[in-house]
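FAQ

Q: What does a record look like?
A: Structure on top, sequence underneath. For example:
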């Protein structure tokens, strides 16, 4: 596909055309940065959620799940720091009247320098061929080191300025780097201001007794306030984790990247409660473990990297992002944060209730430290979907659009195609196969158009298997099974279909790769 912009447009239109993602309230021209998941999208999203839940909760005997409410007592957000500090630094362009996140403008500037590094690497790889050593090149090439030094200096200055609330310096940095409005090219900027991202609402019938509430901006706080309830009722021993998936809401200033940055989105978070002093080893453990989970899906090692935070959130003593190569470049997919005892201590202070753990081995009580893994389900959806969408040149000089979703996540695992739709016996046999397979897999029936066109349609839909039922099937109970990625076809017994499909789509087979 031509360039990254084109690829991203194609992703968005394909998501709509094949029933994955629709703009919310489209008949009213949509609502900015809010999306609906359609008939295929909802299945893909559920499969991603299940894949995460299985790996985090079911496979770990010391992690349990909860489902806390979206509404929480408003003091929660005072205690967590969100009322005072959950802000984005925003800047307006005086000419275009467009609003931007100041930190994102600076990060995008650095991403451009990074692209230059990538170009140098590509050039050198071509020049040196097999003898090329990327690590060595990155650590010795003068030009690359210069670029990297520049990125480090900029990001470290931005990090310090944001931490010290020195917004004038953030503006000064934008001006010194001569960063222009990406749309208009104008460099005429306002001052940088802080903007709180929480949505407010009210609980109660009458105006005077109504209570101000927030829609939760992260699911994590529902876990913190339930920490002791879960620990006691589940008789959990430290280290242990509490996991949850659910909606979160943020009034994002810049929300132009489809489902990458939404105002209503879903998170999959896990808080791991540990003994103070052990956070460094658990941070390393969860970094490695989460990366293995991503790699198990086979979406290419080169598409992931860690990015350690320059600017730490108010609650963290270490943090890293797992970044993924989206069509618009490497961006955060998941955050891994060492949150210390900040949240539990804050909730203790604001609620006046003890949130401590009694350690029988040490015969002492303490406030546990917390290691958090937090991934956006929608962002994971975009990573999976955009990486899967490919256009292939075929030998007969045609192209095919194929959605190479990891088979374990595909919304429909197999489509059953009677070769001739008017042949009642073929239709009956096809429906019989569906009735048998649908207990184990989500399957579809497709009888319209020539079989070649149906294959293409299922390829574009991401269906890993097409099962064609023809005259021979009636004679000897065999069918043709076609594999989406290789387009290979095999003649197999109908009774073997289940085991053939299972081998390719079974969660266990995929998670065993971790
Ligand atoms: N509890 C920690 C926390 O919420 P975060 O880095 O703000 O940390 C975690 O968010 C993850 O949630 C991100 O890595 C991203 O995948 C997802 N996320 C955050 N804001 C989002 C948005 N506006 N739209 C979609 N996903 C978002």
């Amino acid at each position: 596909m031509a360039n990254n912009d084109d690829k991203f447009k194609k992703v968005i239109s394909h998501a709509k055309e094949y029933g994955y993602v629709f703009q919310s309230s489209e008949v009213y021209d949509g609502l900015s940065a809010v999306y609906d998941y359609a008939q295929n999208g909802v299945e893909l999203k559920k499969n991603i959620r299940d894949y995460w839940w299985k790996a985090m909760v079911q496979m770990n005997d010391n992690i349990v799940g909860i489902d806390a409410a979206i509404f929480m007592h408003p003091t929660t957000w005072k205690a967590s720091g969100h009322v005072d500090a959950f802000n984005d630094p925003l800047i307006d362009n005086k000419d275009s009247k467009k609003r931007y996140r100041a930190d994102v403008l600076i990060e995008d500037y650095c991403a451009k320098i990074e692209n230059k590094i990538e170009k140098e690497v590509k050039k050198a790889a071509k020049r040196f061929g097999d003898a090329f050593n990327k690590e060595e090149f990155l650590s010795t090439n003068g030009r690359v080191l210069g670029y990297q030094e520049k990125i480090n200096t900029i990001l470290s200055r931005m990090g310090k300025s944001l931490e010290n609330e020195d917004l004038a310096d953030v503006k000064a940095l934008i001006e010194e780097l001569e960063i222009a409005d990406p749309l208009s090219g104008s460099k005429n900027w306002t001052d940088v201001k802080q903007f709180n991202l929480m949505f407010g609402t009210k609980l109660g019938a009458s105006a005077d007794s109504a209570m101000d509430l927030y829609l939760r901006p992260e699911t994590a706080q529902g876990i913190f306030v339930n920490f002791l309830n879960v620990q006691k009722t589940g008789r959990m021993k430290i280290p242990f984790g509490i996991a949850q998936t659910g909606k979160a809401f943020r009034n994002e200033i810049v929300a132009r990247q489809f489902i990458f940055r939404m105002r209503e989105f879903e998170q999959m978070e896990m808080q791991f409660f540990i003994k103070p002093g052990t956070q460094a080893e658990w941070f390393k453990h969860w970094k490695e473990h989460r990366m293995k989970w991503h790699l198990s899906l086979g979406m290419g090692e080169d598409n992931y990297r860690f990015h350690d935070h320059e600017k730490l959130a108010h609650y963290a003593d270490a943090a890293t992002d797992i970044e993924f190569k989206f069509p618009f470049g490497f961006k955060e997919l998941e955050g891994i944060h060492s949150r210390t005892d900040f949240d539990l201590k804050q909730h203790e202070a604001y609620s006046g209730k003890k949130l401590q753990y009694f350690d029988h081995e040490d015969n002492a009580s303490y406030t546990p430290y917390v290691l958090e893994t937090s991934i956006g389900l929608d962002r994971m959806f975009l990573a999976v979907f955009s990486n899967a969408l490919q256009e292939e040149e075929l030998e007969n000089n045609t192209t095919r659009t194929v959605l190479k979703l990891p088979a374990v996540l595909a919304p429909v695992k197999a489509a059953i195609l009677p070769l001739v739709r008017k042949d009642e016996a073929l239709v009956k046999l096809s429906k019989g196969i569906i009735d048998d397979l649908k207990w184990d897999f989500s399957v579809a029936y497709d009888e319209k158009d020539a079989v070649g066109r149906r294959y293409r349609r299922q390829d574009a839909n991401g269906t890993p298997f097409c099962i064609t039922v023809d005259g021979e099937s009636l004679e000897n109970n065999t069918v043709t099974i076609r594999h989406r990625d290789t387009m290979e076809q095999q003649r197999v017994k109908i009774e073997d279909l289940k085991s053939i499909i299972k081998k390719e789509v079974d969660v266990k087979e995929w998670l065993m790769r971790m």
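Q: Is there anything notable about this one?
A: The chain is about 40% helix and 25% strand.
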